[in-house]
Every structure is written in structure tokens, then in C-alpha cells.
Amino acid sequence: MQRLTSVVFWFLVFGPFVYGQLDYKFYDSTCPNLTKIVRFGIWSAMANDTRIAASLLRLHFHDCISNGCEGSVLLDKTSDFSSEKDANPNRNSARGFELIDTIKANVEKACPKTVSCTDILTLAAREAVFLSGGPFWSLAMGRRDGLTANMSAANTDTPSPFEPLENITAKFTSKGLNLKDVVALSGAHTIGFAQCFTFKSRLFNFDGSGAPDPQLDSSLASSLQTVCPNQDNSDTNLVPLDSVTTAKFDNIYYKNILNNSGILGSDQALMNDNITATMVINYSKYPYLFAKDFGASMVKLSTIGIITGQNGQVRNRCNIVNQN
Ligand SMILES: *[C@@H]1O[C@H](CO)[C@@H](O)[C@H](O)[C@H]1NC(C)=O
Ligand SMILES: *[C@@H]1O[C@H](CO)[C@@H](O)[C@H](O)[C@H]1NC(C)=O
Ligand SMILES: *[C@@H]1O[C@H](CO)[C@@H](O)[C@H](O)[C@H]1NC(C)=O
Ligand SMILES: *[C@@H]1O[C@H](CO)[C@@H](O)[C@H](O)[C@H]1NC(C)=O
Ligand SMILES: *[C@@H]1O[C@H](CO)[C@@H](O)[C@H](O)[C@H]1NC(C)=O
Ligand SMILES: *[C@@H]1O[C@H](CO)[C@@H](O)[C@H](O)[C@H]1NC(C)=O
Ligand SMILES: *[C@@H]1O[C@H](CO)[C@@H](O)[C@H](O)[C@H]1NC(C)=O
């Protein structure tokens, strides 16, 4: 009994370090101002460009969903590997790299060689949501940075707005997420913008019908047609994913879907399955349910394929692996 108590005691004291787990107090003594530094960095950037909030949330999602949360999306290409920045889901659309580099530099000044880029990006996504008026969730820290990027994983693992719901769900479940996570995390589209090419196929000749997608509200379709005319040079024009409260993190995204005002085919497709449709209705009615579930899904997302303990490294700069 004495022995068992002592084993349990040592496990509780040293478990998180010995077993390389994440810890809510991970940086409490080594970088007590970490959250403040990250929050101030995001706040300053949003004062100039509110869209950066959605960009950071997407960057974190793209990091975690392919090969785990290990900061691989932040790496520039080298002679050893291609970058995830250049993968199809990220090229000409991923944003926020310079901001993460700036925040990392500020963190290095306060606590050198201590905080991983992956933890910074994870915190940045939370702060971006919180500062946009959305929920707050507690995050355990201690993720380490990976040593390589994997462009082909970024291409195959990242969900795309051109895929059916089943394919998107399969990508989530292969990472340990579930259907509820699909619906809750889709709520991230309550902020941010989409380039026209990501939904243009819904506007003019949907499935060869010669008309817009019948699941797209007709007056919304007309206004989207003016921003995204049927010619290639409109492909990169931007449209808000939630035109009602574009920069506010709320549950209006789900209300929009209920009245056929989802912008991406993959947004509106949540209504084509009874289970996901019920969740959409729930989230449209109960903002607190959405806030709670979104936070819980973000915590799950932030632990996919993490590197802890002595594995990986704490990068000095987020865009390059340390040389030593
Ligand atoms: C944390 O920031 C405060 C100012 O906001 C500063 O006074 C303090 O020295 C900082 N602490 C550390 C450990 O860097
Ligand atoms: C302000 O935001 C714009 C994008 O909207 C960006 O190009 C510019 O670099 C930002 N300026 C600063 C000082 O961050
Ligand atoms: C990159 O990802 C692909 C697809 O997930 C995988 O097959 C491959 O083994 C990975 N390559 C490396 C070097 O990890
Ligand atoms: C969806 O997944 C199936 C099975 O993996 C695949 O054959 C199909 O090409 C995918 N569809 C799209 C649009 O990616
Ligand atoms: C759809 O719902 C949103 C949010 O309730 C509302 O602002 C918008 O006007 C509605 N659009 C249509 C076409 O009914
Ligand atoms: C989904 O709901 C429709 C009615 O809205 C019903 O006809 C159908 O059987 C349901 N499908 C499943 C799989 O429950
Ligand atoms: C919708 O909300 C109700 C009441 O909170 C809950 O019982 C039900 O399980 C939810 N449905 C889905 C599909 O999440």
C-alpha cells in the first residue's frame, strides 16, 4: 500500500514530463507572459486587418489535419523537402506566416529557446477566435516542432470545399475527429473570406444545369455573380463566408445555412445529411452549445499527432528547422 501510494505520487508529480504529455502549466515558470505576448500580437494585427483572425485559424487547422500539429505548415521549402505552403490547399491562400514569425520573435525576446512555434500557432488560433468575439478554451502546452514538412500529406489530408461531405468526414475520422467535430469546426466559417474559385461552380452552370445551385438562395446567387463574374480573372476575388456578421465569431453561419446562404458547397452540404442537419439546427438555435462544442473540438484538433518530450525540437525561427 505504501509502495502503491508512492508510485502514484511520483506518477502525479513527474507523469507529465516523463510521459511527454501536454501540461496546462507547461510554460508557467519558463514563459509566464506567453499568452499576453501572443494575444497582443494578434490584437495589433487585427486592428489593421480583421481577416487575419480567420487566416490564423485556418493555418492552425491545416497544420494539424495533415501529419499532426507540429508546425510543419510554417516551414519554407529546402533541398530536403517541399513545403506545405506550396501544397494546393495553401498556395496563394494560406496567410499569417509573417505574423507568426513576428510573435515568435517577441516570444524569443521574453523567453529564448523555450516556446515551440506549434504552441504559438495553437495559442494564436484561440486568441484569434476569442478576439473576434468567440469562445475561449483552455489549452495544455508542450507541443514540439517537427523537423520536416510533407507537401503530399498536405495535398491529400486537407479537406477541400470541392469534396462531398462523406470525403470530408472521412478525413476528419482518420485523424480521430468525428462528425460533430466536422459540423462544429465548420463553424469557423463564421469569419473570413473565400476566393471565388472555391464556389464559382455553384453560380452559373451547376452540374450542367445551366442555372445556379438550387441550394443557393437566388438573391445571394445574383449578388455573388456580380463579385465573381463567369470569367477566370475573377477567381481570386474575395467574398465573406458569413455576409451577415463577417468579422464576428458567432453562430450566424448556421442560420445562413438554414436559409440556403452557405457560400461553399461543403458548407451547404451539411444540410444534406439528417444527423449533420440536426446539429446545424441545434447550433443555429443555441449559440452557447456551439461555443462549447467548438472549443471542445479545437482542443481535440490541437492534440492530433503532436510531438512531445524530447522529440522534435523548439525551433528558433518558425520557417526553418534549427541546424545543429
Ligand atoms: C511580464 O510582463 C510584465 C509587463 O507586462 C513585465 O513587467 C514582467 O517583467 C514580465 N515578466 C517576465 C518574466 O518576463
Ligand atoms: C495591414 O493589413 C494589410 C492587409 O490587409 C497588410 O498587407 C499590411 O501588411 C498590414 N500592415 C501591417 C502594419 O501589419
Ligand atoms: C508524407 O505523407 C504521405 C501521405 O500521408 C505519406 O505517404 C509519406 O510517407 C509521408 N512522407 C514522409 C517523408 O513522412
Ligand atoms: C471521394 O472519395 C472517394 C473514395 O475515396 C474518391 O474516389 C473520390 O474521388 C472522392 N471525391 C472527391 C470529389 O474528392
Ligand atoms: C438568412 O439568415 C440570416 C441570418 O438570420 C439573415 O440575416 C438573412 O437575411 C437570411 N437570408 C435570406 C435570404 O433569407
Ligand atoms: C432523413 O430524413 C428524411 C425526412 O426528412 C427521411 O425521409 C429519411 O429517411 C431520413 N434518413 C435517415 C437516414 O434517417
Ligand atoms: C440537438 O440538441 C438536442 C438538445 O440539446 C440533443 O438532445 C440532440 O442530441 C442534438 N442533436 C444532435 C444531432 O446533435
From TrEMBL:
<dbReference type="InterPro" id="IPR002016">
    <property type="entry name" value="Haem_peroxidase"/>
</dbReference>
<comment type="function">
    <text>Removal of H(2)O(2), oxidation of toxic reductants, biosynthesis and degradation of lignin, suberization, auxin catabolism, response to environmental stresses such as wounding, pathogen attack and oxidative stress. These functions might be dependent on each isozyme/isoform in each plant tissue. Involved in the synthesis of highly polymerized lignins.</text>
</comment>
<keyword id="KW-0408">Iron</keyword>
<feature type="binding site">
    <location>
        <position position="68"/>
    </location>
    <ligand>
        <name>Ca(2+) 1</name>
    </ligand>
</feature>
<dbReference type="GO" id="GO:0046872">
    <property type="term" value="F:metal ion binding"/>
</dbReference>
<feature type="binding site">
    <location>
        <position position="242"/>
    </location>
    <ligand>
        <name>Ca(2+) 2</name>
    </ligand>
</feature>
<keyword id="KW-0106">Calcium</keyword>
<dbReference type="GO" id="GO:0006979">
    <property type="term" value="P:response to oxidative stress"/>
</dbReference>
<feature type="disulfide bond">
    <location>
        <begin position="117"/>
        <end position="318"/>
    </location>
</feature>
<dbReference type="GO" id="GO:0005576">
    <property type="term" value="C:extracellular region"/>
</dbReference>
<feature type="disulfide bond">
    <location>
        <begin position="64"/>
        <end position="69"/>
    </location>
</feature>
<keyword id="KW-0376">Hydrogen peroxide</keyword>
<feature type="active site" description="Proton acceptor">
    <location>
        <position position="62"/>
    </location>
</feature>
<feature type="binding site" description="axial binding residue">
    <location>
        <position position="189"/>
    </location>
    <ligand>
        <name>heme b</name>
    </ligand>
</feature>
<dbReference type="GO" id="GO:0042744">
    <property type="term" value="P:hydrogen peroxide catabolic process"/>
</dbReference>
<dbReference type="InterPro" id="IPR019794">
    <property type="entry name" value="Peroxidases_AS"/>
</dbReference>
<keyword id="KW-0349">Heme</keyword>
<keyword id="KW-0964">Secreted</keyword>
<feature type="binding site">
    <location>
        <position position="190"/>
    </location>
    <ligand>
        <name>Ca(2+) 2</name>
    </ligand>
</feature>
<feature type="signal peptide">
    <location>
        <begin position="1"/>
        <end position="20"/>
    </location>
</feature>
<keyword id="KW-0560">Oxidoreductase</keyword>
<feature type="disulfide bond">
    <location>
        <begin position="31"/>
        <end position="111"/>
    </location>
</feature>
<dbReference type="Pfam" id="PF00141">
    <property type="entry name" value="peroxidase"/>
</dbReference>
<keyword id="KW-0479">Metal-binding</keyword>
<keyword id="KW-0325">Glycoprotein</keyword>
<keyword id="KW-1015">Disulfide bond</keyword>
<feature type="domain" description="Plant heme peroxidase family profile">
    <location>
        <begin position="21"/>
        <end position="322"/>
    </location>
</feature>
<dbReference type="InterPro" id="IPR010255">
    <property type="entry name" value="Haem_peroxidase_sf"/>
</dbReference>
<feature type="binding site">
    <location>
        <position position="63"/>
    </location>
    <ligand>
        <name>Ca(2+) 1</name>
    </ligand>
</feature>
<feature type="binding site">
    <location>
        <position position="84"/>
    </location>
    <ligand>
        <name>Ca(2+) 1</name>
    </ligand>
</feature>
<dbReference type="InterPro" id="IPR033905">
    <property type="entry name" value="Secretory_peroxidase"/>
</dbReference>
<protein>
    <recommendedName>
        <fullName>Peroxidase</fullName>
        <ecNumber>1.11.1.7</ecNumber>
    </recommendedName>
</protein>
<feature type="disulfide bond">
    <location>
        <begin position="196"/>
        <end position="228"/>
    </location>
</feature>
<dbReference type="GO" id="GO:0140825">
    <property type="term" value="F:lactoperoxidase activity"/>
</dbReference>
<dbReference type="InterPro" id="IPR019793">
    <property type="entry name" value="Peroxidases_heam-ligand_BS"/>
</dbReference>
<keyword id="KW-0575">Peroxidase</keyword>
<dbReference type="InterPro" id="IPR000823">
    <property type="entry name" value="Peroxidase_pln"/>
</dbReference>
<feature type="binding site">
    <location>
        <position position="72"/>
    </location>
    <ligand>
        <name>Ca(2+) 1</name>
    </ligand>
</feature>
<keyword id="KW-0732">Signal</keyword>
<feature type="binding site">
    <location>
        <position position="245"/>
    </location>
    <ligand>
        <name>Ca(2+) 2</name>
    </ligand>
</feature>
<feature type="binding site">
    <location>
        <position position="250"/>
    </location>
    <ligand>
        <name>Ca(2+) 2</name>
    </ligand>
</feature>
<feature type="site" description="Transition state stabilizer">
    <location>
        <position position="58"/>
    </location>
</feature>
